[in-house]
Amino acid sequence: MTVVRRAHERGITTLALDAPERRNALSARLVGELADALTECGKDGDVRAVVLTHTGNTFSAGADLRDPPDPDVLVALLRRIVELPKPIVARVTGHVRAGGLGLLGACDIAVASQEATFAFTEVRIGVAPAVISLPLLPRLDPRAVARYYLTGERFDAAEAARIGLVTAAGEDADDVLAPVLDGLRRSSPQGLAETKRLLTAKVLDTFDRDAADLTALSARLFSSPHAREGMTAFLERRDPPWVR
Fold this sequence. Notes:
This protein is an alpha/beta fold and about 240 residues long. About 50% of the residues lie in helices and about 15% in strands. The protein has nine helices and ten strands. Helix 1 runs parallel beside helix 2 and helix 2 packs antiparallel against helix 8. The mean pLDDT is about 95.
């Protein structure tokens, strides 16, 4: 059974993360299916743009601790989102945590409903938001991201819009999304591709400069005894020993 559901209407392909029982965690399987689906969208002349959304009440809970993707594979997925010559719009109506926020950062546009919540929870299990920083740090408010990276605090959709994590937030994500899709449908494929190339140049420079170092950092942290304790505590629903 697939974990990425596809639909197409009037030039827009919707890819829905569809593993709600795992809170759409970024497993090796989900990352692989999403990468393949995006590659197909990039080659399909009928696809003007892609909407990336989810089933269930969670957009993505971050890395699947039981079946995590290889850091290099996750970097490749994020880069594929940034490089795809068609706009990718995230539609969020639920919770987003840790690695799931990297998907939002890689998308060109992101809209969220008032039910959405966000948190960079890596620091609480003894790791750091390393790989996902590639698309995020060039786009987020530096003072705000320092706070949320360091504390793991949860914040709402209005704050996500203020710091640049999402483009716009509203009571109903589809109401916010509608004029965006209308604009994309009215835009030429060539115009969209070349405009996206302009917009993503600095983000891709960050990938070229930092991807190897941040991938190595992620691998080192996740394999450390400190992180193993943090992940075990998370899975056992208890506080790790450093909590005071």
